[in-house]
Specification:
Layout: E1 2-5, H1 12-24, E2 29-37, E3 42-50, H2 58-61, E4 66-70, E5 91-93, E6 96-98, E7 104-108, H3 115-127, E8 132-134, H4 155-164, E9 169-173, H5 178-189, E10 195-200, H6 208-215, E11 222-225, H7 232-244, E12 250-254, H8 274-280, E13 285-287, H9 289-293, H10 305-315, E14 320-324, H11 345-370
Parallel strand pairs: 7-14, 8-9, 9-10, 10-11, 11-12, 12-13, 13-14
Antiparallel strand pairs: 1-3, 1-4, 2-3, 5-6
The structure holds phosphoenolpyruvate and manganese (II) ion.
Phosphoenolpyruvate is lined by residues 110, 136, 173, 201-203, 225, 255, 288, 291.
């Protein structure tokens, strides 16, 4: 059972205490408060966990400060979409609203290599007005002999350069909980000029200790990439782990699933799952066409396959795109063959805008035809 408190409640502590006292009268029921930042309001929910089946809803509806009480049948009690709870899709971080209202493109290097390449990429983002980017400092590689990323050493100069170009969010994969402290230290060393989203890579989608550590901090939001070889439900439960530890600020990213049925693409593109994730959860949905498709080749119509996959995700309702770029793909130390050139960025943004326009129009026309 979820008890939603009135937004921006003055005496929230007293309201929570009253609910906890009422819950304590029922053996086997535990009350756990959770805080959320909506687009305009601060929300608190108190979740009743355990033997709640026989609990009457009215008992809690009448308590001071309670907006509504919801019986949850969904397994995803924190990330799940529950009837009539509005305002809760997404969050704002460092001035960027990650929700369903607009599409954000996170364009950047798969792996940080040189200060010049990083700087060139951020400059290209700044030129087209993008404040969101990706940069890999810790790379989980299939072979131990492949480039493993520059690690903590590169963080101060990466963040300094990001700040200089007005980048607000750098999505950065972490492979170990200790890297959260390294990122904090790197930001501090650079004077906190930018923000970081902790990226959970597909290979760590069920690294539960990492998920818990990421959930136990709220400074950095999370870009969670679905597990490449597990069900969608298992990936959503992984996000529930992060949220249940206290961090609900998660973007769910589809990046294709491992199957030779996707050949010759790197993965089988799974962007048909965008509406499912949106229906089941209140997480904004991102798509990663680069790691899905895995190569820069053009279709007979002239558009690269990576563009086509991007369009499929956006038309399905995704509101973020994570995409690999490199100023010199032939020199990239990781995933060069799938990288776009910084000079492609204006074209990609125009394409994204066209596809989002088509999505908005389709949604509008469908609603009108049913009215
Ligand atoms: C990445 O985005 O750099 C990456 C390694 O992706 P994935 O975890 O989806 O393979
Ligand atoms: Mn990569």
């Amino acid at each position: 059972m979820i008890i939603v408190l009135q937004p921006d409640l003055q005496d929230e502590g007293a309201a929570i205490a009253t609910i906890e006292t009422a819950a304590a009268r029922h053996p086997g029921v535990e009350a756990k408060p959770y805080q959320f930042e909506g687009a305009r309001h601060h929300f608190t929910e108190v979740h009743l966990i355990g033997q709640t089946t026989g609990l009457p809803v009215e008992l809690f509806e009448e308590l001071p400060g309670v907006l509504r009480v919801i019986r949850v049948s969904s397994r995803y009690r924190l990330i799940g979409r529950h009837e009539a709870v509005e305002e809760k899709v997404g969050f704002t971080y460092n001035g960027v609203a990650l929700d369903n209202h607009q599409v954000h493109v996170f364009a950047g290097l798969c792996a940080v290599d040189t200060p010049e390449h990083v700087d060139e990429m951020f400059a290209a983002c700044a030129q087209v007005g993008i404040k969101t980017t990706r940069m890999g400092a810790y790379k989980p590689r299939t072979s131990p002999y492949d480039f493993q990323g520059l690690g903590a050493d590169c963080l101060p100069w990466v963040f300094e350069s990001a700040g200089r170009h007005g980048i607000a969010i750098v999505s950065m994969e972490i492979t170990d909980a200790r890297q959260i402290d390294e990122i904090e230290a790197g930001l501090r060393a650079a004077g906190d000029p930018t923000g970081v989203m902790l990226q959970v890579g597909t290979r760590n989608a069920q690294n539960f200790e990492l998920l818990k550590a990421i959930g136990q901090q709220r400074r950095f939001p999370v870009l969670f990439k679905r597990g490449m070889g597990i069900t969608l439900e298992e990936s959503l439960n992984a996000c529930e782990y992060i949220a249940s530890e206290g961090n609900p600020n998660i973007v769910f990213c589809l990046r294709g699933v491992k199957s030779h049925l996707g050949d010759p693409h790197r993965n089988l593109v799974d962007f048909a799952h965008v509406p499912i994730v949106r229906r089941l959860t209140r997480l904004p949905v991102c798509i990663d066409p680069s790691h899905s498709v895995g190569c820069m080749v053009d279709a007979p119509d002239g558009l690269p396959d990576i563009y086509h996959a991007t369009g499929q995700g956006i038309v399905a309702g995704a509101s973020a795109v994570l995409v690999d770029f490199h100023p010199h793909p032939e020199k990239a130390l990781c995933d060069g063959p799938q990288a776009l050139l910084p000079s492609d960025l204006p074209r990609l943004l125009a394409y994204v805008a066209t596809m989002r326009g088509a999505y908005d129009q389709a949604v509008r026309e469908h609603a009108e035809s049913r009215a």
